[in-house]
TrEMBL record, chain A:
Cellular component GO terms held in the UniProt record: cytosol; nucleus
Localization per Swiss-Prot or TrEMBL: Cytoplasm
Entry's family note: In the N-terminal section; belongs to the type II pantothenate kinase family.
UniProt xrefs under InterPro entries: ARMT-1-like_metal-bd_sf, ARMT1-like_metal-bd, At2g17340_3_helix_bundle, ATPase_NBD, PanK_long, Type_II_PanK
Lineage: Eukaryota, Metazoa, Chordata, Craniata, Vertebrata
Keywords in alphabetical order: Acetylation, ATP-binding, Coenzyme A biosynthesis, Cytoplasm, Hydrolase, Manganese, Metal-binding, Nickel, Nitration, Nucleotide-binding, Phosphoprotein
NCBIfam families: panK_eukar
SUPFAM superfamilies, per database record: Actin-like ATPase domain, AF1104-like
Reaction catalysed by this enzyme: (R)-4'-phospho-S-sulfopantetheine + H2O = (R)-S-sulfopantetheine + phosphate; (R)-4'-phosphopantetheine + H2O = (R)-pantetheine + phosphate; (R)-4'-phosphopantetheine sulfonate + H2O = (R)-pantetheine sulfonate + phosphate
Top-level taxon of origin: Eukaryota
Example of a GO MF term: metal ion binding
The species this protein was found in: Oreochromis niloticus (Nile tilapia)
Pfam families, per the entry: ARMT1-like_dom, Fumble
The protein, known as: 4'-phosphopantetheine phosphatase
Automatic annotation (TrEMBL), chain B:
Transmembrane segments: none
GO molecular function terms noted in the UniProt entry: ATP binding; pantothenate kinase activity
Subcellular location: Cytoplasm
Its EC number(s): 2.7.1.33
InterPro entries the UniProt entry points to: ATPase_NBD, Type_II_PanK
The reaction(s) this protein catalyses: (R)-pantothenate + ATP = (R)-4'-phosphopantothenate + ADP + H(+)
Organism per entry: Oreochromis niloticus (Nile tilapia)
Principal EC category: transferase
Keyword Kinase in annotation: yes
Alphabetized NCBIfam families for the sequence: panK_eukar
One cellular component (GO) term of this entry: cytosol
Keywords, comma-separated and alphabetical: ATP-binding, Coenzyme A biosynthesis, Cytoplasm, Kinase, Nucleotide-binding, Phosphoprotein, Transferase
Protein's recorded name: pantothenate kinase
Family in the record: Belongs to the type II pantothenate kinase family.
Amino acid sequence: MAECGRVDSNTSHTMDKSITLPPDEIFRNLENAKRFAIDIGGSLTKLAYYSTVQHKVAKVRSFDHTAKEAAGDKLYEISMQEEVTARLHFIKFENAYIETCLDFIKDHLVNTETKVIKATGGGAHKFKELIERKLGLKVDKEDEMTCLIKGCNFVLRNIPHEAFVYAKHADSEFRFQTTNPDIFPYLLVNIGSGVSIVKVESEDKFERIGGSSIGGGTFWGLGALLTKTKRFDELLQLASKGQHASVDMLVKDIYGGSYGYLGLTGDLIASSFGKSATADKEFSKEDMAKSLLHMISNDIGQLACLYAKLHNLSRVYFGGFFIRGHPVTMHTITYSINFFTKGEVQALFLRHEGYLGAIGAFLKGAEEDNPNQYSWGENYAGSSGLMSVSPDMNPMQRARSGTFDMLEMDRLERQLVNLPLLQDPSSYIPDTVDLTEDAPAREYWLYCFEEALDGVVKRAVASQPDMPEAALRAEKFRQKYRHKLQTLRQQPFAYGSLTVRSLLDTREHCLNEFNFPDPYSKIKQRENDIALKYYQKAVKSLDELSWEEKQFALVRGVLAGNVFDWGAKAVSEPAFMPLGGQTDFCIFFFIPLSERPWLVDSYDQWLERLKGPPHKCALFFVDNSGVDIILGVMPFVRELLSRGTEVVLASNSGPALNDVTNGELQILTERIAAMDPVIEAGLREDRLLLVQSGSSSPCLDLSRLDKVLAMVVRERQTDLVIIEGMGRAIHTNYYAMLSCESLKMAVIKNSWLADRLGGKLFSVVFKYEVPVGKPNKDCGAFSPC
Amino acid sequence: MKQLCHHLAFPWFGMDIGGTLVKLVYFEPKDITAEEEQEEVENLKSIRRYLTSNTAYGKTGIRDVHLELQDLTLCGRKGNLHFIRFPTHDLPAFLQMGRDKHFSSLHTTLCATGGGAYKFESDFRMMADLELHKLDELDCLIRGVLYLDSVMSSGPSECYYFENPADPDHCVQKPCTLENPYPLLLVNIGSGVSILAVYSEDNYKRVTGTSLGGGTFLGLCCLLTGCSTFEEALEMASQGESTRVDKLVRDIYGGDYERFGLPGWAVASSFGNMMSKEKRESVSKEDLARATLVTITNNIGSITRMCALNENIETVLFVGNFLRVNTLSMKLLAYAMDYWSKGQLKALFLRHEGYFGAVGALLELLHPS
């Protein structure tokens, strides 16, 4: 049922109405804002708007190489360009601030095209007049439930790790769910004043199948009567301290123990408030609040289970102000669901549950922009993340989260889909280690990223030598990222599961935020230039080897090339400087690769496989610029092409560390093609394809890849996937199960990680896998047909 | 196989010790021969006289005279069946009386069911020198229900329903029988609630239960209004207005919420108006008692309806002491079943509301299964 307006006004007007954070840090990009939507609940207002963000991107452009090359000529030029991208802003604040906020928006709103503001939520009518007067926009009311469902579909589809299971006593309280590409059908139990139970079958099809009048309003209203405590939060606080057994009649109070015949344990509540049926006993506020909380949570859980069973649904999401990030209610609801379904159904909660109505209202108003045709990504730099677990743990943060909370979503240029070759998309987890659950690993990586921060700042400044204010921006970046790291130390679950990938991505988002789109551009350029000069020599020396020697040299080349990685800590350390500082082809041969057998070594099986028929098509996810791509990957690709295998090279759409971007790779490949007839023929005959991955991360999420890539993979009947590098093959996808053959190659360039995996620094992982029950569909054995 | 019980020694009792109330049924033989009269020991006589000549026992024991079944034939004996109840917390006084009246000298088996049969077993032994024959409460409940519905009695019909539940002016109680009752959803509302799906006399399962039952109604009423008995709470509820306490659909949407077919009069949030300080100050104790009653009753209705749907059962039988002198709740349940199921579900009630467990226990004494 609808969230009702908070009628207790005595708490709000005493509040300081000044905004503690600079408002321009909250209502960002207002100048280009359009399409406003607002969701006014009982105590919180959620504002949504669509805006465009202008930021710098690094573009590469090939020089004209038709003229004879002079030594020292650069391969391509790098230019900074302004690019406009779309972003969704969502801001949550207490209703007390609504007037101040509207004033601020009015003052900064430049765009005059906007005429209407979509509104939803129980409080929308109450503030209608105020909004219309302040903003001069017509308030257009949208159905609350429709908005809620629209918003829910949107976050489930676009935000990885949106849904989580809550486990109070587990190592990590939040267990995030992997994104199931198929989000329907599901049950949404919205616990506002009352309870609405909605079955959602598709984007446009949902039905309120039931509900209950015993909801958050009952807890609040009855709780206020029983305990003389006015505020909802305080009631929850009371409840968390109480003992319900002094108020409730338990099975053991009736039976003296358990009711064994029915399997009801003694501690089960037989009758809520059953012990208070007496006039001559006093009960503590805490105990009554606790009993009330149990009564209501159990009742809602029971009804939700009955509805889930009747409609045969197993995914049940809970939301509404009763739930909204409150660990106390998430725990009791979870307990109830476990009890009534004997663990068959899990209670699921949403990280952005509070925004659903605003997101939905916004989407209603933006239908002509077709927001659902795009993929969107949570911007870690601009989003507050999920706040504190327990109210006592971090009171300051909690107080702040009650004031302003932000969510920003970037419209991605490409629509993202699953790699069609995932064995089971619904169980695929990109990340190898969940740092939310692994405390020592979390400690280490947070420390590691903090340590590396100085270096990143330096490199960012160095990448923009012509911009004097770069140092200032870099400093801002430092502050922002350090703050993010601090937040994550306190609340590792803030953005879903904490992983090395999320730490890397957050850093990229923060760099972009301060207009450092590509700090490595110059380094990448230099390394590409140098490596290119040695390409022919490398290919020639490889061609002189016997077939078997050559196969090993190619693999070794990919691995050795992968050591050249500015993203890795060990490589930029002084001990390694002779290698990293001045890249030279001869060094390529002195890379301290460990001897076989490697840490993970299925080279023999790979070699056996190579003696068999060629693969139809190989999809190669590449890693670094320079030596890695040019002297490691390209010769390997060349060999695949020579064998008759088509090759799809997948590289990042946007920059991340020193990873080669699609733009750079286009130029590099052209240059190599000019020197190498095999590559040239491959391009010309369309047997070598360069595609974007759709990602701008140093890691790889195979469930969010460019739609075009997925299409190509399907069309070409790809039967081999090669993943290279620590970020893509170790931090992520190490355990990824594919439905075709796969090859994961990486050198462990981090001593801690090497230690963890039972190896040493520069240990090699060479993991060749063939899916079970699918040896080789052409021949059945690895012998020439 | 039924055993001849002609010679089973009197007194014949069945007892159900619940969380809140102890229910006792007593068979008073009316066909005692002169010979029997001679043989009857003084203790037995004294008990019979004490029980049948009083309608109240001690401070809290009550005999529900209106429920008495007269001229009943049980095991070939003719007599009257008496229905007595007292609060569970007064069980010590009962045991004391048993001791004073030398109950144990009669060498009878005391068949008892309900949780208290387990909890107080040792008290019976220690304080009154009585051995309990413990029986499962759900087995007894079903046995008792089926028996009382089947006995031919001159009084009003055991089973009834409400005609026109949607229309308060024409809503009337109508007698019926439990012929071909299966499958049947049996909802027992005591302190807590148990919901059973009954497929035949000896085939049933407990579908679920809820802790929001009669105990919750009384417990909350005591806290909210300062009352101390069920009768007081009901009396207050009958004079109150729950719509001042509850937030209705029309309070939020101004009328019906048509998008989802919710009528304006439906409760959107029980006690929802009590979130507001002003409204908290303006409601009466009677309003609060009424709202508590409506909340608990409607919730039992919702859960029952969902169970009926899940189990694919259309007949619902409500029993238990929560319904005693509680026409308000019965009519609400009858209406809720009818309205939300669009007439598919039928709510039935039984006159002997809370005594079926005790009757079942008595039957176990006479015909051990």
